[in-house]
Specification:
It is a single chain. This protein is about 0% helix and about 25% strand. It is built from no helices and three strands. Strand 1 and strand 2 form a beta hairpin. The protein is elongated. The two termini are about 25 Å apart.
């Protein structure tokens, strides 16, 4: 999964394929990352007391227009 954020435009990718984009209310200040697991987007959620593991293989951040 990746996010491409440039002035006035943000794009979202999963496995190299663009899955969404927007030009409305695109932030113009630095953001922070929040990584989380979801048990279900629809239907029943995880039972109380259950757990999940999120393994991160690689993370990179690039500056737009960096000199």
């Amino acid at each position: 999964m990746s996010t491409e954020w440039t002035p006035g435009h943000v794009r979202f990718f999963v496995d190299g394929r663009q899955t969404g984009h927007d030009t409305r209310a695109v932030p113009d200040r630095p953001l922070s990352w929040v990584l989380q697991n979801e048990s279900a987007l629809e239907g029943p959620g995880a039972v109380p007391g259950s757990s999940a593991q999120l393994d991160i293989t690689w993370v990179a951040a690039y500056a737009y227009g960096w000199k």
